[in-house]
Amino acid sequence: MAEPSEPGGLLLSDDLIFTSRITGAARALGLHLKAVRSAETLLDMAALHTPRCVIVDLANPGLVLTDLIRGLGEPRPRVVAYGSHVDTECLRAARAAGCDPVLPRSKFVEELPTALPDWFTRPKTP
Protein backbone atom coordinates (compact mmCIF):
# COMPACT_ATOMS: atom_id res chain seq x y z
CA MET A 1 0.00 0.00 0.00
CA ALA A 2 1.47 3.37 -0.99
CA GLU A 3 1.77 6.10 1.61
CA PRO A 4 -0.23 9.28 1.06
CA SER A 5 1.82 12.13 -0.36
CA GLU A 6 1.36 14.28 2.74
CA PRO A 7 2.21 12.98 6.19
CA GLY A 8 -0.49 13.33 8.80
CA GLY A 9 2.24 13.51 11.40
CA LEU A 10 5.87 14.43 11.83
CA LEU A 11 8.36 12.88 14.24
CA LEU A 12 11.47 14.68 15.47
CA SER A 13 14.00 12.10 16.62
CA ASP A 14 17.57 11.22 15.80
CA ASP A 15 17.37 7.83 17.57
CA LEU A 16 17.16 5.54 14.54
CA ILE A 17 16.03 2.42 16.39
CA PHE A 18 13.33 4.23 18.37
CA THR A 19 12.27 6.14 15.25
CA SER A 20 11.80 2.85 13.43
CA ARG A 21 9.66 1.56 16.30
CA ILE A 22 7.41 4.64 16.24
CA THR A 23 7.05 4.84 12.45
CA GLY A 24 6.41 1.09 12.33
CA ALA A 25 3.58 1.45 14.85
CA ALA A 26 2.10 4.28 12.78
CA ARG A 27 2.39 2.29 9.56
CA ALA A 28 0.69 -0.73 11.20
CA LEU A 29 -2.21 1.58 12.06
CA GLY A 30 -2.40 2.97 8.52
CA LEU A 31 -1.02 6.38 9.56
CA HIS A 32 1.60 8.31 7.61
CA LEU A 33 4.27 9.59 9.99
CA LYS A 34 7.36 11.21 8.50
CA ALA A 35 10.50 11.13 10.64
CA VAL A 36 13.06 13.94 10.58
CA ARG A 37 16.27 14.41 12.54
CA SER A 38 16.36 18.18 13.06
CA ALA A 39 13.96 20.87 14.20
CA GLU A 40 14.77 22.91 11.09
CA THR A 41 13.75 20.07 8.80
CA LEU A 42 10.61 19.49 10.83
CA LEU A 43 9.59 23.14 10.49
CA ASP A 44 10.27 23.03 6.74
CA MET A 45 8.11 19.90 6.39
CA ALA A 46 5.37 21.38 8.58
CA ALA A 47 5.23 24.49 6.40
CA LEU A 48 4.76 22.29 3.33
CA HIS A 49 2.33 19.69 4.66
CA THR A 50 0.38 21.07 7.68
CA PRO A 51 0.55 17.96 9.90
CA ARG A 52 -2.17 17.16 12.40
CA CYS A 53 0.36 15.79 14.91
CA VAL A 54 4.01 16.46 15.73
CA ILE A 55 5.86 14.05 18.01
CA VAL A 56 9.03 15.35 19.65
CA ASP A 57 11.84 13.47 21.35
CA LEU A 58 12.89 15.95 24.03
CA ALA A 59 16.42 14.49 23.96
CA ASN A 60 16.91 15.54 20.33
CA PRO A 61 20.29 17.32 20.06
CA GLY A 62 20.04 21.08 19.72
CA LEU A 63 16.30 21.19 20.33
CA VAL A 64 14.97 24.54 21.53
CA LEU A 65 11.39 23.52 22.16
CA THR A 66 9.95 27.02 22.49
CA ASP A 67 11.40 27.95 19.08
CA LEU A 68 9.96 24.79 17.55
CA ILE A 69 6.50 25.43 19.00
CA ARG A 70 6.55 29.07 17.86
CA GLY A 71 7.76 28.01 14.41
CA LEU A 72 4.77 25.71 13.94
CA GLY A 73 2.54 28.79 13.78
CA GLU A 74 -1.22 28.86 14.22
CA PRO A 75 -3.34 26.90 14.10
CA ARG A 76 -0.77 24.62 15.66
CA PRO A 77 -0.91 20.86 15.32
CA ARG A 78 -1.06 18.70 18.41
CA VAL A 79 2.49 18.42 19.77
CA VAL A 80 3.24 15.22 21.68
CA ALA A 81 6.51 15.17 23.60
CA TYR A 82 8.36 12.35 25.31
CA GLY A 83 11.55 12.26 27.31
CA SER A 84 13.45 10.70 30.16
CA HIS A 85 11.42 10.10 33.31
CA VAL A 86 14.33 11.39 35.41
CA ASP A 87 14.44 14.73 33.59
CA THR A 88 11.36 16.12 35.29
CA GLU A 89 12.37 19.71 34.56
CA CYS A 90 12.47 19.00 30.80
CA LEU A 91 9.05 17.31 30.95
CA ARG A 92 7.65 20.23 32.94
CA ALA A 93 9.11 22.74 30.44
CA ALA A 94 7.50 20.83 27.57
CA ARG A 95 4.10 21.11 29.25
CA ALA A 96 4.65 24.82 29.85
CA ALA A 97 5.62 25.26 26.17
CA GLY A 98 2.25 23.83 25.10
CA CYS A 99 2.95 20.17 24.36
CA ASP A 100 -0.03 17.90 25.04
CA PRO A 101 0.54 15.22 26.10
CA VAL A 102 4.02 15.10 27.62
CA LEU A 103 5.05 11.59 28.58
CA PRO A 104 8.01 9.78 30.04
CA ARG A 105 9.54 7.59 27.35
CA SER A 106 8.29 4.33 28.93
CA LYS A 107 4.70 5.61 29.14
CA PHE A 108 4.96 6.90 25.56
CA VAL A 109 5.94 3.41 24.36
CA GLU A 110 3.16 1.82 26.39
CA GLU A 111 0.47 4.16 25.04
CA LEU A 112 1.73 4.43 21.45
CA PRO A 113 -0.43 1.74 19.79
CA THR A 114 -3.69 3.00 21.28
CA ALA A 115 -2.98 6.74 21.54
CA LEU A 116 -1.41 7.33 18.13
CA PRO A 117 -4.73 7.33 16.22
CA ASP A 118 -6.17 9.83 18.72
CA TRP A 119 -3.13 12.08 18.41
CA PHE A 120 -3.63 12.16 14.64
CA THR A 121 -7.37 12.86 14.74
CA ARG A 122 -8.32 14.66 17.94
CA PRO A 123 -7.62 18.37 18.10
CA LYS A 124 -5.15 19.49 20.74
CA THR A 125 -6.60 20.46 24.07
CA PRO A 126 -6.80 24.20 24.72
Search tags:
126 residues, alpha/beta, five-stranded parallel sheet, 5 strands, globular
Spatial extent as radius of gyration: 13 Å
Low-confidence regions: none
Report the structural category.
Answer: alpha/beta
Relative helix content: 40-55%
Taking the alpha carbons of the first and last residues, their distance comes to 35 Å
List the total number of helices: 5
Overall residue-averaged pLDDT value: 91
Assign an overall shape.
Answer: globular
Instruction: Name the beta content range.
Output: 15-25%
Strand arrangement across the biggest beta sheet? 2-1-3-4-5
Largest sheet: 5 strands, parallel
List the secondary-structure elements in sequence, H or E.
Answer: EHEHEHEHEH
> How many beta-strand elements?
5
SSE topology sketch:
Layout: E1 9-12, H1 16-28, E2 33-36, H2 39-49, E3 53-57, H3 65-71, E4 78-83, H4 88-97, E5 102-104, H5 105-121
Parallel strand pairs: 1-2, 1-3, 3-4, 4-5
Provide an overview of this structure.
The protein has helices at residues 16-28, 39-49, 65-71, 88-97, 105-121; strands at residues 9-12, 33-36, 53-57, 78-83, 102-104. The chain is an alpha/beta fold and 126 residues long. A five-stranded parallel sheet has the order 2-1-3-4-5, sandwiched between helices. The radius of gyration is 13 Å and the shape is globular. The model has no long low-confidence stretch (mean pLDDT 91).
